[in-house]
Amino acid sequence: MAKLTILEFPDPRLRTKATAVSVVDDSLRTLIDDMFETMYAAPGIGLAATQVNVHKRLLVVDISSDKSEPLVLINPEILEKDGAIASDEGCLSVPGYYEEVERAEHIRVRFLDRQGAAQEMEAEGLLAVCIQHEMDHLEGKLFVDYLSEAKRQRIRKKLQKERRHQSAAVVM
Ligand code: ZN
Questions:
Q1: What gap in Å lies between CA 150 and CA 147, rounded to an integer?
Q2: pLDDT tens-digit profile, the chain (172 residues)
Q3: Cα 99 to ligand 1 centroid, rounded to whole Å
Q4: Distance of CA 172 from the midpoint of ligand 1 (Å)
């Protein structure tokens, strides 16, 4: 297993729209394992392939506190959504920022599992929020897109400044 590099806002590669996975094979399963390792190490509760610069429709989620509920969704599709829930969201690609976003409270989703078998599941609350957040990544969308333009610009400027400082430290 290998830890992957997570792209950070405003990296334009995060805006790429992912394409459907056509074959679920061992190389995809290796990517899935690497994504779990990367997500757990971060630590985070969800990671979309887009965030590790692989533009396939694939995401991993685990909202448990002890890594006991790993969930892989390949080619996820929301069949139904209802209700509304507002919660503070953060994102491994927007480190250090948490803002309130409103999402559907309950979703029904269809996807392929790590064996390539079609599955359907219902999710609500945090799990539903997390899946919707990760599915946005596959469309090139970030949670900061739900915020005001002014707020998004502030986050962008701050993150760019922090990164300039970081890279300066490396060359010196
Ligand atoms: Zn995210």
A1: 8
A2: 799 999 999 999 999 999 999 999 999 999 999 999 999 999 999 999 999 999 999 999 999 999 999 999 999 999 999 999 999 999 999 999 999 999 999 999 999 999 999 999 999 999 999 999 999 999 999 999 999 999 999 999 999 888 777 666 666 6
A3: 12
A4: 31
DSSP string, 58-125: EEEE--SSSS---EEEEEEEEEEEE--EEEEEEETTEEEEEEEEEE-SEEEEEEE-TTS-EEEEEEEH
Ligand 1 centroid to 19 CA: how many Å? 18
The single residue of 37, 77, 134, 139 carrying the catalytic annotation is 134
139, two tokens: 């469309």
Ligand 1 centroid to Cα of residue 96, in Å, is 12
Which pair of tokens denotes residue 44?
């985070």
Which tokens belong to 168? 């300066």
Residue 80 annotated among the catalytic residues of the structure = no
User: Are the beta carbons of 94 and 143 closer than 8 angstroms?
Assistant: yes
